[in-house]
Design goal:
5-stranded antiparallel beta sheet; 3-stranded antiparallel beta sheet
Length: 192
């Protein structure tokens, strides 16, 4: 079995690099960090936020290694140099997609802060950072999710003001209000 796979070993690494690069390009486009009112699959947002940079680096290393293995084959005109060249092209494409998909994580990162349940909905609170006019601007973002917490509609909360440096909590009141609290201080209170 191993002897049969050996000629295709570069493809074994290149195809997952391409697929994962494409996945992260899509996830980068669908993240909360893109701004405005967006509908997201929240577990995918969390997966992207915690793994995008590391995975794009790993894909880049795989692509670089495959290039390093392929160049001597191509210069020596060895058999399978064409097939391995195609594998290198796939890995480089996956690397480009992964790096492109990581850009929202770098330039407009979203950080999850807290979660609260109110009635039949789950609410997620986070902070999004972005560069604006030579400074860094941050906004609270809240996401109203279905009862499972998976599909969410996310909105900016500019009325809540600039997020504090201390960790914030989202608290649900039985009266139907949500409160953003930093330490013991109430920062913002609203009805969803």
């Amino acid at each position: 079995m191993r002897a049969r796979l050996r000629p295709y070993m570069m493809l074994v690494f290149a195809v997952p690099a391409l697929l994962l690069g494409g996945l992260y390009a899509i996830l980068g486009w669908q993240t909360v960090g893109s701004g405005g009112d967006t509908t997201v699959f929240y577990p995918a947002v969390m997966l992207y936020n915690h793994t995008a940079e590391a995975l794009s680096t790993a894909i880049l290393l795989v692509a670089g290694t495959l290039v390093g293995l392929w160049v001597p084959q191509a210069l020596g005109r060895r058999p399978r140099a064409g097939l391995n060249g195609a594998a290198v092209a796939l890995a480089l494409t996956g690397s480009a997609l992964a790096c492109w998909g990581t850009l929202p994580s770098v330039f407009t990162p979203y950080i999850h802060l807290s979660r609260a349940t109110l009635g039949e909905h789950v609410y997620q609170l986070g902070v999004r950072y972005a560069a604006k006019n030579n400074s860094v601007v941050s906004n609270y973002v809240y996401c109203e999710c279905d009862s499972s917490g998976l599909a969410c509609q996310c909105h900016d909360l500019p009325a809540a003001g600039e997020p504090a440096q201390a960790p914030a909590q989202l608290l649900a009141d039985p009266s139907g209000t949500l409160t953003i609290q930093v330490g013991s201080q109430t920062v913002y209170q609203f009805k969803p």
